[in-house]
Design a protein that fits this description.
Radius of gyration: 17 Å
Number of strands: 6
Strand content: 15-25%
Strand order of the largest sheet: 1-2-6-3-4-5
Shape: globular
Order of helices and strands: HEEHEHEHEHEH
Number of helices: 6
Structural class: alpha/beta
Low-confidence stretches: none
Mean pLDDT: 90
């Protein structure tokens, strides 16, 4: 009986370097907010609770992601916003809600849900301004930044 095709066909270096853009993509960003300051940023378009829980669990295995987190987040209208935000209550995360277009749920609505769950959050409509605010806050506090909830949002941030 033959073996099914799978990862055994890939050498270890290929497996180690394989990445999907916007999926657990880790970068260190130099900021203009401080000399030689780097902020750890993770781009992950997780838009369902299960995926976001897995991302946060995986990241918590690394020391640098155990610090407080500032998330920049947009969630599409057809996604489980309450479920995604409930996942975040188990972590030390504050959120900047933003929008990426007509499909996005209102950031004000998201803030209302977050308030109900006891999450700290603000609203900044422009995603690039929200990201810059997260970087500035992370530089000051030693936090890391998570861009999540939407692959569209991740795409905007990656292109900047």
């Amino acid at each position: 009986m033959s073996e099914p095709l799978g990862e055994q066909l890939l050498d270890p270096s290929t497996i180690a370097t394989a990445r999907l853009p916007g999926r657990l993509e880790k970068i260190a960003v130099n900021t203009s907010h401080s000399d030689n300051a780097k902020v750890n940023v993770v781009l992950d378009g997780a838009h369902v609770p299960f995926n976001l829980a897995a991302v946060l669990s995986d990241l918590s295995q690394e020391e640098k992601y155990r610090a407080p987190c500032i998330a920049v987040m947009s969630i599409a209208d057809d996604k489980d916003a309450a479920g995604l935000l409930s996942t975040m209550t188990r972590h030390d995360i504050s959120i900047i809600f933003t929008t990426v277009g007509a499909r996005s749920r209102s950031p004000e609505q998201l803030k209302t849900i977050a308030d109900t769950l006891g999450l700290r959050s603000i609203v900044m409509l422009d995603p690039l301004e929200a990201y810059q605010e997260a970087l500035a806050g992370a530089t000051e506090s030693g936090a890391w930044v998570l861009v999540t909830g939407s692959l569209y949002l991740v795409g905007i941030i990656r292109a900047a």
